[in-house]
Amino acid sequence: MIKITAREQPNELLHKVEELSGQNLFTCYQCGTCSAGCPFAGEMDLLPEQIIRHLTMGINDVLTSKSIWICASCYLCAERCPRDINMAKVMEALRQVQLRRNIDHVQIAHLPPEVLGAVPPMALVANFRKNTG
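Above: the chain sequence. Below: its structure as tokens.
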């Protein structure tokens, strides 16, 4: 199980993300092309190039960023990156690290019946699946 906190070695998260994604984040020179082309950049609290910068600087707040969940993995950032960094793979790696921390943000047992009835079945299946892997 992976447990990464801000008090741990700063580059541990970076190394784990690079291992899971297969990307070398130090090749990024912060041109911003990934963020400029992202269709969801307006909704993100950290832009894609900021996520890379935070990772390389050892700032582990990216795991609590809503940006990693907003990314739709459309690969537009990967297509446009002059350094061939696949940011969609980096976002997926960050989601995997966060999910492996096994922190439940949704407690299905505590949802009121009216909310539970309105939740799409796929969301319920996805919530249960993360606990079975």
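The chain has eight helices and no strands.
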